[in-house]
Amino acid sequence: MGQKNNVICSYLSDAAVFADFINGSIHNGEKVVFPDQLMDRERVTHLKENPPPVKRPPGKPKYVERQRDSLKAVFGGDYYIVIGIEAQNKVDYAMPIRCMEYDVTEYKRQLRERSRSREGKLSGGEFLSGMAKEEKLNPVITIVFYHGEEPYDGCMDLHDMLELKEENKTCQRIVYKRFIADYHVNLVKAGDLDEGNFETGLLCIKSLRCKIPVLFFFRVPGKD
Description:
This protein is α/β, with parallel strands linked by helices. The protein contains 7 helices and 7 strands.
Protein backbone atom coordinates (compact mmCIF):
# COMPACT_ATOMS: atom_id res chain seq x y z
CA MET A 1 0.00 0.00 0.00
CA GLY A 2 2.99 2.34 -0.18
CA GLN A 3 5.84 3.61 1.97
CA LYS A 4 3.73 5.92 4.13
CA ASN A 5 1.24 3.16 4.88
CA ASN A 6 4.08 0.81 5.85
CA VAL A 7 5.47 3.41 8.25
CA ILE A 8 2.08 3.85 9.90
CA CYS A 9 1.62 0.09 10.25
CA SER A 10 5.06 -0.17 11.84
CA TYR A 11 4.29 2.54 14.40
CA LEU A 12 0.90 1.01 15.23
CA SER A 13 2.67 -2.16 16.33
CA ASP A 14 4.00 -0.20 19.33
CA ALA A 15 1.71 -0.58 22.35
CA ALA A 16 1.89 3.11 23.35
CA VAL A 17 0.96 4.26 19.84
CA PHE A 18 -1.80 1.64 19.51
CA ALA A 19 -3.38 2.69 22.81
CA ASP A 20 -3.08 6.35 21.89
CA PHE A 21 -4.75 5.75 18.54
CA ILE A 22 -7.71 3.96 20.16
CA ASN A 23 -8.08 6.64 22.82
CA GLY A 24 -7.77 9.52 20.36
CA SER A 25 -9.98 8.18 17.59
CA ILE A 26 -12.61 6.18 19.49
CA HIS A 27 -12.68 7.78 22.95
CA ASN A 28 -12.14 11.43 21.92
CA GLY A 29 -8.82 11.68 23.76
CA GLU A 30 -10.00 10.12 27.02
CA LYS A 31 -7.46 7.67 28.47
CA VAL A 32 -9.43 4.44 28.43
CA VAL A 33 -6.86 2.02 27.01
CA PHE A 34 -3.30 1.82 28.43
CA PRO A 35 -0.23 0.15 26.89
CA ASP A 36 0.11 -2.34 29.74
CA GLN A 37 -3.36 -3.69 28.95
CA LEU A 38 -2.31 -4.76 25.45
CA MET A 39 -1.05 -8.09 24.19
CA ASP A 40 -0.17 -8.93 20.60
CA ARG A 41 -2.40 -11.34 18.72
CA GLU A 42 -1.18 -13.44 15.79
CA ARG A 43 -1.56 -11.26 12.68
CA VAL A 44 -0.87 -13.92 10.05
CA THR A 45 -3.35 -16.60 9.09
CA HIS A 46 -3.30 -19.20 6.34
CA LEU A 47 -6.58 -19.95 4.62
CA LYS A 48 -7.13 -23.02 2.49
CA GLU A 49 -7.71 -21.97 -1.11
CA ASN A 50 -10.87 -23.11 -2.89
CA PRO A 51 -10.18 -25.97 -5.31
CA PRO A 52 -9.88 -24.95 -8.97
CA PRO A 53 -12.40 -26.18 -11.60
CA VAL A 54 -9.81 -28.70 -12.76
CA LYS A 55 -8.41 -30.95 -10.07
CA ARG A 56 -4.78 -30.50 -9.13
CA PRO A 57 -2.43 -33.46 -9.07
CA PRO A 58 -2.40 -35.17 -5.66
CA GLY A 59 -0.33 -33.26 -3.13
CA LYS A 60 -0.53 -30.77 -0.30
CA PRO A 61 -3.48 -28.33 -0.30
CA LYS A 62 -2.68 -24.75 -1.25
CA TYR A 63 -3.03 -22.05 1.40
CA VAL A 64 -3.32 -18.28 1.02
CA GLU A 65 -1.64 -16.04 3.59
CA ARG A 66 -3.55 -13.16 5.14
CA GLN A 67 -1.74 -10.61 7.30
CA ARG A 68 -3.38 -7.92 9.39
CA ASP A 69 -1.72 -4.53 9.89
CA SER A 70 -2.06 -4.47 13.66
CA LEU A 71 -3.95 -6.77 16.02
CA LYS A 72 -3.94 -6.66 19.81
CA ALA A 73 -5.98 -7.93 22.73
CA VAL A 74 -7.11 -5.25 25.20
CA PHE A 75 -7.39 -6.83 28.65
CA GLY A 76 -9.77 -5.63 31.33
CA GLY A 77 -10.06 -7.88 34.35
CA ASP A 78 -10.89 -11.45 33.36
CA TYR A 79 -11.87 -10.65 29.77
CA TYR A 80 -10.36 -9.09 26.69
CA ILE A 81 -11.46 -7.42 23.47
CA VAL A 82 -9.52 -7.98 20.25
CA ILE A 83 -8.98 -4.81 18.22
CA GLY A 84 -7.47 -4.77 14.76
CA ILE A 85 -6.42 -1.66 12.85
CA GLU A 86 -6.18 -1.70 9.06
CA ALA A 87 -4.32 1.32 7.67
CA GLN A 88 -5.38 2.34 4.16
CA ASN A 89 -4.12 5.06 1.83
CA LYS A 90 -6.27 3.72 -1.01
CA VAL A 91 -9.98 2.94 -0.98
CA ASP A 92 -10.74 -0.78 -0.85
CA TYR A 93 -14.18 -1.20 -2.39
CA ALA A 94 -14.52 -4.70 -0.93
CA MET A 95 -13.65 -3.57 2.61
CA PRO A 96 -16.85 -4.88 4.28
CA ILE A 97 -16.02 -8.42 3.13
CA ARG A 98 -12.37 -7.99 4.06
CA CYS A 99 -13.25 -6.87 7.60
CA MET A 100 -15.77 -9.67 7.93
CA GLU A 101 -13.16 -12.24 6.88
CA TYR A 102 -10.63 -10.83 9.35
CA ASP A 103 -13.10 -10.93 12.24
CA VAL A 104 -14.46 -14.41 11.48
CA THR A 105 -10.87 -15.69 11.26
CA GLU A 106 -10.17 -14.32 14.74
CA TYR A 107 -13.34 -15.86 16.18
CA LYS A 108 -12.35 -19.23 14.69
CA ARG A 109 -8.90 -18.84 16.27
CA GLN A 110 -10.55 -18.30 19.66
CA LEU A 111 -12.55 -21.50 19.19
CA ARG A 112 -9.34 -23.41 18.50
CA GLU A 113 -7.68 -21.85 21.55
CA ARG A 114 -10.62 -22.85 23.75
CA SER A 115 -10.47 -26.38 22.39
CA ARG A 116 -6.76 -26.72 23.18
CA SER A 117 -7.04 -25.30 26.69
CA ARG A 118 -10.31 -26.94 27.71
CA GLU A 119 -10.24 -29.53 30.49
CA GLY A 120 -12.40 -32.52 29.72
CA LYS A 121 -14.22 -33.48 26.55
CA LEU A 122 -17.41 -32.13 25.03
CA SER A 123 -20.31 -34.29 23.93
CA GLY A 124 -23.49 -34.00 21.91
CA GLY A 125 -24.23 -30.59 20.45
CA GLU A 126 -21.33 -29.03 22.31
CA PHE A 127 -18.92 -31.46 20.62
CA LEU A 128 -20.36 -30.69 17.18
CA SER A 129 -20.20 -26.92 17.69
CA GLY A 130 -16.75 -26.94 19.27
CA MET A 131 -17.76 -24.94 22.34
CA ALA A 132 -19.68 -25.50 25.54
CA LYS A 133 -23.11 -23.94 25.97
CA GLU A 134 -21.96 -21.57 28.72
CA GLU A 135 -18.76 -20.48 26.95
CA LYS A 136 -18.48 -17.03 25.41
CA LEU A 137 -16.01 -15.69 22.87
CA ASN A 138 -14.28 -12.34 23.22
CA PRO A 139 -15.50 -9.51 20.96
CA VAL A 140 -13.49 -8.60 17.86
CA ILE A 141 -13.41 -5.10 16.40
CA THR A 142 -11.74 -4.00 13.17
CA ILE A 143 -11.04 -0.31 12.63
CA VAL A 144 -10.19 0.94 9.15
CA PHE A 145 -7.84 3.93 9.38
CA TYR A 146 -7.99 5.83 6.08
CA HIS A 147 -5.25 8.39 5.48
CA GLY A 148 -5.44 8.70 1.70
CA GLU A 149 -5.57 11.93 -0.26
CA GLU A 150 -8.78 11.16 -2.17
CA PRO A 151 -12.20 11.30 -0.46
CA TYR A 152 -13.29 7.93 0.87
CA ASP A 153 -16.13 6.71 -1.37
CA GLY A 154 -16.11 3.00 -0.56
CA CYS A 155 -18.98 0.89 0.75
CA MET A 156 -19.66 1.30 4.44
CA ASP A 157 -21.42 -2.02 4.92
CA LEU A 158 -22.06 -5.30 3.16
CA HIS A 159 -25.53 -4.27 1.96
CA ASP A 160 -23.93 -1.41 0.02
CA MET A 161 -22.00 -4.00 -1.97
CA LEU A 162 -25.07 -6.02 -2.90
CA GLU A 163 -27.54 -5.45 -5.73
CA LEU A 164 -30.43 -4.34 -3.51
CA LYS A 165 -31.76 -1.19 -5.15
CA GLU A 166 -34.76 0.13 -3.27
CA GLU A 167 -36.28 1.70 -6.38
CA ASN A 168 -36.74 -1.72 -7.94
CA LYS A 169 -39.64 -2.83 -5.75
CA THR A 170 -40.47 -5.79 -8.00
CA CYS A 171 -37.05 -7.33 -7.52
CA GLN A 172 -37.20 -10.54 -5.49
CA ARG A 173 -33.93 -9.59 -3.80
CA ILE A 174 -35.61 -6.68 -2.00
CA VAL A 175 -38.09 -9.08 -0.40
CA TYR A 176 -35.23 -11.00 1.19
CA LYS A 177 -33.14 -7.99 2.23
CA ARG A 178 -34.17 -8.18 5.88
CA PHE A 179 -32.88 -11.75 5.99
CA ILE A 180 -29.46 -10.84 4.57
CA ALA A 181 -26.91 -10.31 7.33
CA ASP A 182 -25.10 -6.98 7.15
CA TYR A 183 -21.56 -6.07 8.20
CA HIS A 184 -20.52 -2.52 9.01
CA VAL A 185 -17.12 -0.91 8.39
CA ASN A 186 -15.72 1.04 11.37
CA LEU A 187 -14.06 3.83 9.40
CA VAL A 188 -11.72 6.41 10.92
CA LYS A 189 -10.53 9.13 8.52
CA ALA A 190 -7.33 11.01 9.31
CA GLY A 191 -8.80 14.28 8.07
CA ASP A 192 -11.62 14.09 10.62
CA LEU A 193 -9.39 13.57 13.66
CA ASP A 194 -8.51 16.20 16.24
CA GLU A 195 -4.72 16.23 16.61
CA GLY A 196 -5.12 17.46 20.18
CA ASN A 197 -6.62 14.11 21.18
CA PHE A 198 -3.30 12.31 20.64
CA GLU A 199 -0.08 12.22 22.64
CA THR A 200 2.36 9.99 20.77
CA GLY A 201 2.82 12.23 17.73
CA LEU A 202 1.92 9.49 15.25
CA LEU A 203 -1.17 11.31 14.16
CA CYS A 204 0.30 14.57 12.98
CA ILE A 205 -2.61 15.15 10.63
CA LYS A 206 -0.75 17.53 8.37
CA SER A 207 2.04 14.98 7.97
CA LEU A 208 -0.35 12.13 7.21
CA ARG A 209 -1.83 14.09 4.34
CA CYS A 210 1.52 14.87 2.73
CA LYS A 211 2.68 12.88 -0.28
CA ILE A 212 6.02 12.16 1.42
CA PRO A 213 5.80 10.50 4.85
CA VAL A 214 7.25 12.83 7.48
CA LEU A 215 5.79 11.19 10.56
CA PHE A 216 7.17 12.04 13.97
CA PHE A 217 7.07 9.58 16.83
CA PHE A 218 7.13 10.70 20.45
CA ARG A 219 6.68 8.50 23.50
CA VAL A 220 3.86 9.17 25.91
CA PRO A 221 5.21 11.43 28.66
CA GLY A 222 6.68 9.38 31.51
CA LYS A 223 7.28 6.32 29.33
CA ASP A 224 10.73 5.07 28.30
